[in-house]
Design brief:
By secondary structure, this protein is α/β, with parallel strands linked by helices. The protein has 30 helices and 29 strands. Helix 8 (169-182) packs parallel to helix 27, helix 14 (295-308) runs parallel beside helix 20 and helix 23 (446-454) packs across helix 25. It is globular and about 70 Å long. The two termini are 32 Å apart.
Length: 758
């Protein structure tokens, strides 16, 4: 299916958008801002919004030295409701003492993600000891002693960490340095569950795993291909750039199995008159709805259409890439029938889309987790990169590849070395710093960590933010695996479901830390477009709270483990010194050494390509064939079959965040834009309802390969036939952990399920 703006092409398949598809933004955004401003924390909220620190939400966030509402180019009015929601949650009062003292863990385990978050801020360290049904208070000195012992006792290969992008570059650097000095490479990270295929796929093609497009370059584009992204909900600031691109006559091609209303029309507060009175700004010029997981086929089809219409940038391809001969041979040998059968789009749709691409002067290819959350996620990314090279849209103004990362500093964690795939230049620099070789024992990524823990191979785990339990598929396995670890220390600002479901076998420490705008020293973070932001010190609203900065905690732990050799580990409590070490050892980060004196934010060197010379051995982009995936769904018998008279059908389930959600944290139970008014809903194509005998708003059981959910309401909506959508993390219980063999990322966006109704 494709829907688009008017176009004279006779081959375009362009039915009108369904009338029930709501637009994004507009009055709901204004209402959200108004409610937040008029709340009891409204004054503190506005003070925090203007504080010189980076947004807590997505990697497109603003803030830093340019001020709370400005982006890296100094443009104003760049805060979004997602940022307001995140700040508002951090401004809650402390969790009442009676919550942990009076409620048993069994009672706390009945809470949803939203209910856990609404308990308030953690303000004192707590411990759960085996055999107890409560968390109880503990002093910081005992915390440090227990943690040091838990890290000192086991062999290094049985010690691990997990982290999220909520924290700073300085804390991330300390975390990886601490573990690598111990001899452990078990540095699992939330990026393993989201954009690891982007990092790996782009590195294979270009030798660099981040966006090659900065904000200034994006503003020179006259075309954007946006794939597998619900940017109106998850990256609202990006919508301003798409609105501006459409205003200057550009093209936005959206590829997504779900017809998201905010990608058809979006009302941004940065364009108030149009948003409030005109219903918003047009976004998609063309909207394609392929079969979930078929993106490699979509891009092979676009490549084939470009080849057949003579639109390959041959001079560029031959001069600046290698492996193109094998790729062209694959394109020629792959039939249109095979491509269209895989992706569910017609040849005419793909040819029309290719014509729109060819008409653009400078194209940016952007994507989110709709591309990476598949068993062939890395191949999907390579197929996009291949298309960018074949069309000549890399390494020049307004052109390139741009993964849209979720958490605000998830890319910074990778830059700091929190990864199981440490790049060789940084490895050599760290070895020089530590004065000895680093361990070559492969580390556990997030899925490997869960599997190793389930097998009894992990003794100690430090979680720097995040929700390891809630972010993983197969919730029962995740709970079982964490329960076999001897000691887990969670550093967090607020309670989450992982703190009550992910209990360790002997002791679980729940440790309260400052958030980004409270931390009493300067820190830095890195945006998804390689821009390093400086966060000024702040204060907390929590009176008499026993909070600790993550840098202080990690430096003290490192000192207790390593003493003063070969560096002064306790001195690492000074973030200025940490930044000196970052400048010496992290490629592209030399400018961070002077950031305290200059207060000058900077772009990481060597990532935004201004000319087609890439950091590969040959200096050329490395193209490779991308096989079509097998997307066959099992039949009902795979799930035990349907009983006589039982209605149902098998669908490909997409798990996604709602509009009022950030990662595993749920701010609003309903999703008005999609018409899913509570969490126990499933979005389904109306034709699938008719064919199966199911009815709109009927409640069914959704049976997955790992578990089932009952009383799920069916919501008819604008989703591709054969696909369905449910909310994450609730739907995690359904899926077994099928993962991309290259990156280890789970296939959250193509989960076979059986709907059952009596």
């Amino acid at each position: 299916m494709a829907t688009a703006d008017p176009d004279p092409s006779p081959t375009a398949a362009q039915p009108a958008a369904p009338e029930d598809t709501a637009s994004g933004g507009g009055w709901p955004l204004i209402d959200g801002w108004a409610r937040a401003t008029l709340s009891p924390t409204g004054l503190r909220l506005w003070q925090t919004l203007t504080h010189r620190s980076a947004c807590l939400s997505c990697a497109w966030g603003t803030g830093g030295q340019n001020g709370g509402f400005r982006d890296e180019l100094g443009e104003p009015l760049q805060r979004c409701l997602k940022s307001v929601e995140a700040i508002g949650a951090e401004l809650q009062p402390a969790v009442p003492r009676e919550v942990f003292a009076g409620r048993t863990l069994a009672e706390l385990q009945q809470l949803s993600s939203a209910e856990c978050d609404r308990l308030g801020r953690l303000d004192r360290p707590l411990i759960h000891r085996a055999g107890s049904d409560h968390y109880e208070p503990i002093g910081w000195e005992e915390v440090q002693a227990l943690t040091a012992e838990a890290f000192r006792r086991p062999p290094p290969e049985r010690v691990a960490s997990y982290s999220s992008g909520r924290s700073s570059n300085e804390a991330a650097y300390l975390l990886q340095l601490l573990l690598r000095a111990l001899g452990s490479n078990n540095l699992a990270d939330c990026s393993d569950l989201c954009h690891a295929p982007s990092t790996l796929g782009l590195t294979r093609v270009f030798g660099s795993g981040t966006s090659m497009v900065n904000l200034e370059s994006l503003q020179h584009a006259d075309g954007v291909v946006l794939v597998g992204s619900n940017a109106p909900a998850n990256h609202p600031r990006l919508m301003n750039e798409l609105i501006r691109l459409r205003e200057r006559g550009g093209t936005v091609i959206v590829i997504n199995p779900v017809l998201e209303g905010g990608l058809l029309k979006f009302g941004s507060p940065a364009f108030p008159i149009r948003s409030m009175l005109g219903g918003g700004s047009a976004i998609a010029s063309l909207f394609l709805q392929p079969v979930p997981g078929s993106d490699t086929a979509v891009f092979l089809g676009l490549q084939k259409a470009l080849l057949e219409r003579g639109a390959i940038a041959w001079e560029f391809v031959k001069a600046h890439s290698e492996g193109w001969q094998e790729l062209i041979a694959q394109i020629e040998a792959t039939s249109w029938e095979a491509i269209t059968a895989c992706c569910g789009l017609s040849r005419e749709e793909l040819e029309h889309t290719a014509a729109r691409l060819a008409a653009c002067r400078a194209l940016v290819f952007a994507w989110a987790m709709g591309i990476t959350h598949h068993a062939n996620g890395t191949t999907n990314v390579q197929a996009i990169a291949n298309t960018a090279v074949l069309s000549g849209n890399v390494a020049r103004p307004g052109a390139g590849t741009m993964p849209i990362r979720g958490h605000s500093n998830v890319q910074g964690f990778g830059s700091m070395g929190v990864t199981v795939h440490l790049r060789e230049p940084m490895r050599l620099a760290l070895e020089q710093l530590l004065g000895r070789p680093l361990s070559r024992t492969p580390g556990y990524d997030t899925r490997a960590l869960i599997e190793a823990a389930e097998g009894g191979e992990v003794d100690t785990l430090l979680c720097l933010g995040g929700n390891l339990f809630g972010a993983n598929p197969h919730s029962a396995q995740a709970r079982r695996a964490l329960g076999r670890i001897d000691t887990i220390a969670y550093l967090a600002t607020k309670p989450n479901t992982g703190h009550v479901h992910g209990l360790a076998a002997r002791q679980t420490l729940l440790l309260p830390v400052f958030n980004r705008f409270e931390t009493p020293h300067r820190t830095t973070v890195e945006s998804g477009n390689n821009w390093v932001r400086l966060n000024e010190p702040g204060t907390t609203h929590l009176r008499s709270a026993q909070l600790i900065s993550e840098v202080e905690f990690l430096a003290e732990l490192a000192h207790r483990l390593h003493g003063s050799d070969p560096i002064d580990w306790r001195r690492l409590q000074d973030p200025v010194y940490v930044r000196e070490l970052i400048a010496r050892t992290v490629p592209g980060y030399g400018a961070i050494a002077g950031i305290d004196a200059s207060r000058r934010e900077f772009e990481v060197a060597g990532r935004v390509f201004h000319e087609p010379r890439f950091p590969t051995p040959s200096g050329r982009a490395r193209l490779a064939v991308t096989p079509l995936p097998d997307l066959t769904l099992p039949g009902p018998e795979h799930f035990g079959g349907l009983a006589a008279g039982e209605r149902g059908l098998v669908l490909s389930l997409i798990t996604a965040r709602s509009y009022g959600q950030h990662n595993t944290v749920v701010y609003k139970q309903g999703d008005q834009v999609r018409g899913m008014l509570h969490r126990r809903t499933l979005l389904i194509n109306p034709e699938d309802l008719t064919a199966s005998g199911l009815r709109a708003h009927e409640c069914v059981t959704v049976q997955g390969e790992a578990g089932a959910l009952a009383d799920i309401e069916l919501i008819p909506g604008s989703i591709r036939r054969g696909a369905a959508l449910m909310f994450y993390p609730e739907a995690n219980v359904l899926m077994r952990p099928l993962k991309d063999p290259d990156s280890g990322t789970p296939a959250f966006k193509r989960v076979p399920v059986l709907l059952r109704a009596g």
